[in-house]
Amino acid sequence: MSSGKINAPYQAFEYSEKAFRSGAIPQQKPLEDPGRFAKALEGGDFLERLPWGNYAGLDIHVRPQYVLSHQKRLSKGAQLQGGRAWTHVQKPKDLIKTRWQLLLMFAGGFADQFMFRFWMFCAFAVFLMGVFKEGVLLALQYGTWPMAAIVALHLFFRYPFTWFLERHPDFIVKDLGCGFFRQTGMVKFRTWREETFEAPFIEFDPYISFHVNPKGPTSCKLQLRHRYTGWQTAVASVHSTLKHELYAHWDELQRYMDVSQPLPDIPALEPYRHLDPTTAEHDAAGNRGRPADYWATLDLEWWEKEGYPAHLNAIREFPWNQLRDRMQDSVPNLNAGAMV
Prior knowledge:
single chain, 340 residues, alpha+beta, four-stranded antiparallel β-sheet, 8 strands
């Protein structure tokens, strides 16, 4: 197995003065109170606002499939390319433009087996109505083409379309220059207007929101809302029964952006630990407590059966509600102006 360092076109760097440091969050402008109506309209799905600047140190991107993918890349001697890779420089996001996302939603609506049966049921119901109203011949002439079209779309999106995207992901997945930037403390994302919004990480408030999906199951999302403009972006989404995992997502993202903390100890970032100043110093002092190639040589069978379940249980049992919110010291009226 490799030593855990992948040859990559990156070098060590120095942090910007504006980089996020949890122990030195600057004073910020007070919030404008949006009023009860705006809170009810915009924040109706928000369940809670999460605290800033105190950590549990529990990472979420350590699932067995991430470890397996990391080990496979190393065994093949792969080189990570810039742009879409999560590195010590950037955690990319919004890799698919909105118009492609709409196409994928449309494709998913016809490729999914449940939705396919639903559309066929509707088309068959229309056909039967035509039989009773216009007769069998006219119903066959005009009422069967919707069913044929649905079958054709289902087969196309389920097989050739999926086959093409699996083999040519670069066709729609591209670096749009968006993401979370550790060195500068900035966040960039695409808005629904197809524009890029950029603001400092510390100007966002983290919320967990509740959603009902079209197919029925409910989900919870971790959303970052810019407190001075209202623009927001999603970080992660889980089934509502796994809401506790979103706390770990936020904990991990904060530590990634916090240059006073070492990089999260996850497979994706292991090859870059020696390139990040804080992390390199942390590891050189022996504070990591793990070999440099820990994830590269980890016993995957043990991790899947014992290590990872224990890690999930630690996330589930951690008293997340007891973490103090340091952002309240920097935004004068944060509690009064927050959406929840």
